[in-house]
């Protein structure tokens, strides 16, 4: 997150290949594990713009 981003917006600039462990938990950083597998109604593509997240300072 940067000061240039609009409040309430989170961006993932780059992901990685899906790399699951023995329990199928992704350890590679693949954004697709956070999105639905249903296509968007308009473009029939990945609806990555409609995901709710919670960000906490650690």
TrEMBL record:
<dbReference type="GO" id="GO:0030288">
    <property type="term" value="C:outer membrane-bounded periplasmic space"/>
</dbReference>
<dbReference type="GO" id="GO:0016491">
    <property type="term" value="F:oxidoreductase activity"/>
</dbReference>
<dbReference type="Pfam" id="PF01568">
    <property type="entry name" value="Molydop_binding"/>
</dbReference>
<dbReference type="InterPro" id="IPR009010">
    <property type="entry name" value="Asp_de-COase-like_dom_sf"/>
</dbReference>
<dbReference type="GO" id="GO:0030151">
    <property type="term" value="F:molybdenum ion binding"/>
</dbReference>
<dbReference type="InterPro" id="IPR006657">
    <property type="entry name" value="MoPterin_dinucl-bd_dom"/>
</dbReference>
<dbReference type="GO" id="GO:0009061">
    <property type="term" value="P:anaerobic respiration"/>
</dbReference>
<dbReference type="GO" id="GO:0043546">
    <property type="term" value="F:molybdopterin cofactor binding"/>
</dbReference>
<keyword id="KW-0560">Oxidoreductase</keyword>
<dbReference type="InterPro" id="IPR050612">
    <property type="entry name" value="Prok_Mopterin_Oxidored"/>
</dbReference>
<dbReference type="GO" id="GO:0009055">
    <property type="term" value="F:electron transfer activity"/>
</dbReference>
<feature type="domain" description="Molybdopterin dinucleotide-binding">
    <location>
        <begin position="2"/>
        <end position="50"/>
    </location>
</feature>
<protein>
    <submittedName>
        <fullName>Anaerobic dimethyl sulfoxide reductase chain A</fullName>
        <ecNumber>1.8.5.3</ecNumber>
    </submittedName>
</protein>
